[in-house]
Design brief:
The complex is a heterodimer.
Chain A: H1 21-41, H2 49-72, H3 94-112, H4 128-132, H5 134-141, H6 147-169, H7 174-201, H8 227-234, H9 237-262, H10 265-268, H11 273-280, H12 293-321, H13 333-354, H14 356-359, H15 362-383, E1 388-389, E2 392-393, H16 394-413, H17 418-421, H18 425-430, H19 432-443, E3 447-451, H20 461-464, H21 472-476, H22 492-496, E4 502-506, H23 524-531
Antiparallel strand pairs in A: 1-2, 3-4
Helix pairs in contact in A: 1-2, 2-6, 3-16, 6-7, 6-11, 7-11, 8-9, 12-15, 12-16, 12-19, 13-15
Chain B: E1 3-7, H1 11-23, E2 27-32, H2 44-48, H3 64-67, E3 70-74, E4 77-81, E5 86-89, E6 94-96, E7 99-102, E8 106-108, E9 121-122, H4 127-136, E10 146-149, H5 153-164, E11 169-172, H6 185-197, E12 201-203, E13 208-213, E14 219-224, E15 230-232, E16 235-238, E17 242-244, E18 260-262, E19 273-275, E20 280-282, H7 296-310, E21 323-328, E22 331-337, E23 347-353, E24 360-366, E25 372-378, H8 384-392, H9 397-402, H10 404-407, H11 418-431
Parallel strand pairs in B: 1-2, 1-7, 2-3, 7-19, 9-16, 10-11, 10-16, 11-12, 18-20
Antiparallel strand pairs in B: 4-5, 5-6, 8-17, 13-14, 14-15, 21-22, 22-25, 23-24, 24-25
Classes of the chains: A mainly alpha, B alpha/beta.
Chain lengths: 533, 432
């Protein structure tokens, strides 16, 4: 065993001493920026908040930029993962654990104790670190900041600053650069600026738009069909209606088309905000995902359970929103339940008829999920009243989902535990959107990762750096294409491969899944024999 | 139940075991004195560089072996008694086999240099070499300079490794240009420049005379043959090739030369004893291949073939078109078919190099028939499947040039060079 491995747990020799002078200065600048926020958190009242906020965010960005330039531009272009497993931060060392604990703490405070951050309640002015962000919020939306504005700003800053770092790290790889530019654009524009401008619109009494990140699709955006959200859309004229329509079209039309053509990567690693943070700020932690078979098993149970939960929860919410009188509105509760039932049955039947073979044993689990949802539909019909479903308040179901899945799973565990479980915990184990896209990617998509004949040397770089914990090598060394529902198409396996074995491609559906061992360079007769089952 | 014993848990031995298990219920035992579990030897460098942990180099999780009823025995084989079909271990243990597969791989070459067995002098092949490297060259304080002797694939990998820990490297290469026994001039010279770009002190046409010891039996410096120059160093990497690791067969009846002599069925002179991988030597070379091929891919192919034979489906070892790959610092290299360092008689080379000095290709052509014989590609990934097909179909070089884009395997959005290559080809064609 390499005696280097426990390096990172040692307090006596932290890897900071390997930083160059410029990098140390950069770290100092970044920490200074954070320090301003900590002072604000401790209720230090800065005289001119706009200047100090600019200074704080500016120092963080400049620090990251200087650090990245020193770290990557001084080296030749290429894969530079040197020392990843020796650095405390990226190998679950002291720094890694400390960062994980701080991040987790931050999320707990953010979700459950926002008053500690200085969130003003009952119309009182903000204090603390939230008040530091007031000037920016006023500038954008004309409102004082909230904990979500602070979070959104920091989130965007992280994606932009670390996105720049990522682009330098992969400056020889145009796929990585374009993909990163894309997530930076969608985060800044769609997730951050547009919703703030939409809030400006709400100053007019004609508009009552809910916060809406246009690129965030249901079921990731689980509150899209909440009554406040729907009421908001419906009371905002044509624009509101258009937005609601866009939300429905994106999941039922746009997403299936794009996923068919390009795989789920078009969303997960080119557009999505969760993916954006994971790929930029989380990039240093991608190697920490578990590649064990047991982790894969857990993943499949967990993510599909969340999907079923979110599906039932959403149906319940819409169900209780609707009325029963067909004269008032054509979409009544029974009509709604029946149409959902018919739709799901159709999807299920089509998969079972056309893709039965590819599913193999998984068909059974799919069937379980399907029948759970159908049973839930019946239960809803027979137990549902105006505000009760399954004999509990339907809003309770919604708040349970919001608390356990929306906050704890995606935020506290999903991001807080980056330095421990890797950067895609949420995307891999929890995201219902990823489950939907993944199901389609596995069954109806042109996307695959092609293996280059017999060139694999089983080195394991691909598996190590797969953030989704896919054992890429297991496929590559057999000459088998990688067609996995969880693959987000980040392209890093292909980038780190020293022998040019992996390529992300969109090609015809035919021959996409090749479970045979096709190792070229071998005698043809032998290959025939090997593939005889 | 027939007991198959495999000595060596590298790619050859493990592939044999896996395929025997797929085909049969035979009892399988794999013996190793190196590590308990199979790991990818080619990935050792990434452990030193901190890209991976050692556990990441293991292609199968540890439960795999028990689940597939492949017994693992940790021990060093000292001799083999083929009459009684018995294997003897260093600790006087013994094991009976019905069929024996020897897949013991290679060891680093040492050419009798004075001081070659000193502390801090080693090759890079085994897991133990990696462990020793961590002792003698963990950082640039313990190891102020390292000297590498031998300009081949392992040598340049070792240079890259040491470079990641900021250890200054002097790289002694006997030839006038890096690996020019294999690579054509243009490619070899491009790699020379690439090595120097990484601040490696590359010394071409330079031989090692001797290694000098300090008072503790550890390396202190090396002396250069040509100039008599003494280079102080704390580590010497001997990477002048590898040779079959078969010392334990000295007193056995198994016939050896450089390696264990085998026929095309991978059988040795003794019934029920087979040899595969780096340690096997073909009695007659196959095509342009060397009798001893120390290559990952051939080890794997031999393992697959032999598993068929052992399971009653006697099969000749018939490797297909030659291919190989490597990486020189940041430049990936792939080869399909045969490209020789100098065109063989009746052949010629087409060479294209990109301005940025990190990408080039060389194609070997039959001058008379214009047949495409092989390609070396640097910095551009190419499709194995396509070249394998073109070689089988015996395509002309014109066809290959016109269709080169089909063979491109670079990631999406990468810049393409096929047009540039084609126009260079057209110009060169007029001059030759």
């Amino acid at each position: 065993m390499s005696n280097k491995l426990n390096y990172s747990m040692s307090l006596a020799k932290p890897d900071a001493q390997n930083l160059s002078m410029i990098q140390k200065i950069a770290v100092f600048l970044g920490v200074a920026g954070l320090f301003i926020m900590i002072l604000a958190l401790l209720n230090v009242d800065f005289p001119n908040k706009a200047i100090f906020l600019t200074l704080s965010l500016g120092l963080i960005i400049i620090g990251t930029v200087i650090f990245s330039r020193d770290a990557y531009l001084k080296k030749t272009e290429g894969i530079k993962n040197d020392g990843v497993w020796f650095k405390s931060i990226s190998s679950k060392g002291i720094l890694g654990w400390a960062t994980g604990i701080v991040l987790t703490g931050f999320y707990i405070v953010l979700y459950f104790y926002a008053e500690l951050l200085g969130q003003g309640s009952n119309g009182e002015a903000n204090t603390g670190v939230i008040s530091l962000f007031d000037p920016l919020s006023q500038l954008l939306s004309g409102r004082p900041a909230s904990q979500w504005f602070v979070y959104g700003t920091l989130y965007t800053v992280a994606i932009l600053a670390f996105g720049y770092k990522f682009m330098l790290k992969y400056r020889h790889n145009r796929y990585e650069q374009l993909r990163t530019a894309s997530v930076m654009f969608f985060q800044l524009g769609f997730a951050f600026l547009i919703p703030e401008f939409m809030a400006r619109l709400n100053e007019s009494p004609q508009y009552n738009l809910p916060y809406y990140d246009l690129k965030s699709m249901w079921p990731l955006n689980y509150y899209l069909f909440d009554s406040w959200s729907i009421n908001g859309f419906l009371s905002s004229g044509n624009l509101g209606l258009l937005m609601l329509l866009f939300g429905v079209i994106s999941i039922f039309v746009i997403s299936p088309i794009l996923t068919y053509k390009y795989g789920k990567r078009w969303y997960c690693s080119w557009v999505c905000g969760c993916g954006a943070l994971a790929e930029t700020a989380g990039d240093s932690f991608r190697q920490l995902s578990s590649k064990k078979l047991s982790a894969w098993k857990l993943e499949r149970w967990l993510i599909h359970t969340v999907l079923v939960f979110s599906l039932i929860m959403t149906i319940a919410i819409i169900y209780s929103y609707l009325g029963s009188d067909p004269d008032k509105y054509w979409l009544t509760r029974p009509v709604f339940l029946i149409s959902i039932g018919v739709f799901l049955t159709l999807v299920f039947a089509l998969i079972m008829i056309f893709k039965r073979n590819e599913l193999g044993k998984d068909a059974r689990y799919g069937a379980i999920g399907f029948f759970v949802v159908i049973a839930a539909l019946f239960a809803m019909h027979f137990t549902g009243t105006t505000d009760e479903i399954f004999l509990i308040k339907s809003s309770n179901l919604r708040s349970a989902y919001g608390l356990y899945i929306g906050s704890i799973f995606s935020g506290v565990i999903g991001t807080g535990f980056y330095p421990i479980f890797g950067n895609r915990v949420w995307c891999r184990f929890g995201c219902p959107m990823a489950a939907v896209l993944g199901m389609q990617q596995r069954l109806f998509s042109k996307f695959r990762i092609t293996t280059n004949g017999g060139q694999c040397i089983s080195c394991g770089n691909c598996s190590t750096y797969c953030e989704m914990g896919i054992d890429v090598r297991a496929y590559a060394q057999k000459g088998e294409n990688i067609v996995r529902s969880s693959c987000v198409g980040c392209g890093i396996c292909s980038a780190v491969c020293p022998r040019g074995v992996l390529k992300l491609e969109n090609d015809s559906m035919k021959g996409r899944i090749n479970p045979n061992e096709i190792l070229l360079g071998n005698d043809v007769d032998l290959m025939d024999l090997v593939n005889q089952k | 139940m027939e007991h198959i014993v495999i000595i060596g848990n590298g790619i050859s031995g493990v592939t044999t075991a896996r395929h025997i298990r797929k085909l049969s219920d035979k009892k399988i035992t794999i013996i190793s004195a190196e590590t308990e579990h199979f790991f990818s030897r080619t990935a050792l460098m990434y452990v030193y560089m901190g890209h991976m942990k050692f556990e990441h180099t293991k292609p199968y999780e540890d439960w795999f072996w028990k689940k597939n009823r492949i017994d693992l025995k940790f021990g060093f084989v000292s001799s083999i008694e083929t009459k009684s079909k018995t294997i003897y271990f260093e600790n006087h243990d013994s094991l009976q086999y019905d069929k024996l597969v020897i897949a013991t791989g290679s060891k680093s070459n040492k050419f009798g240099w004075p001081g070659q067995d000193l502390k801090g002098v080693q090759g890079l092949y085994h897991k133990q070499d990696l462990d020793n490297l961590e002792i003698y060259a963990p950082n640039n304080k313990v190891c102020k300079r390292a000297v590498i002797v031998g300009g081949g694939l392992i040598g340049i990998e070792l240079a890259e490794m040491l470079n990641t820990r900021n250890i200054p490297v002097t790289f002694l290469v006997r030839e006038s240009s890096f690996w020019n026994g294999v690579l054509p001039k243009g490619e070899s010279e491009m790699i020379n420049r690439h090595i120097k770009n990484h601040h490696i002190d590359l010394r071409l046409s330079t031989n090692l005379k001797e290694i000098i010891s300090d008072e503790n039996g550890k390396v202190k410096s090396v002396i250069i043959e040509e100039t008599g120059e003494e280079i102080p160093c704390d580590f010497v990497g001997l990477t002048a090739g590898v040779s079959p690791n078969i010392d334990f067969l000295k007193n056995s009846d198994i016939e050896t030369n450089g390696g264990i002599l085998v026929n095309r069925y991978l059988e040795t002179n003794i019934k029920d004893v087979f040899a595969i991988g780096d340690c096997a030597e073909q009695r007659e070379a196959i095509g342009n291949r060397r009798p001893i091929e120390a290559v990952w891919y051939t080890g794997r192919m031999m393992g697959e073939t032999l598993a068929q034979t052992i399971c009653g489906n006697k099969l000749e070892y018939k490797p297909g078109h030659w291919f190989n790959s490597a990486k020189f610092f940041d430049i990936e290299y792939q080869t399909y078919g045969w490209v020789f360092s100098k065109p063989k008689e009746g052949h010629q080379h087409f060479h294209w190099k990109h301005n940025d000095d990190t990408k080039c290709i060389t194609i070997e052509v039959d001058s008379e028939t214009n047949a495409f014989l092989g390609i070396n590609t640097f910095g551009i990934r190419m499709r194995h499947e396509i070249f394998d097909k073109w070689l089988t179909e015996k395509r002309t070089v014109d066809y290959v040039m016109q269709h080169l884009v089909e063979a491109n395997f670079d990631p999406e959005f990468y810049k393409h060079f096929e047009k540039e290559i084609l126009s260079t080809y057209k110009n060169q064609l007029q001059t030759v």
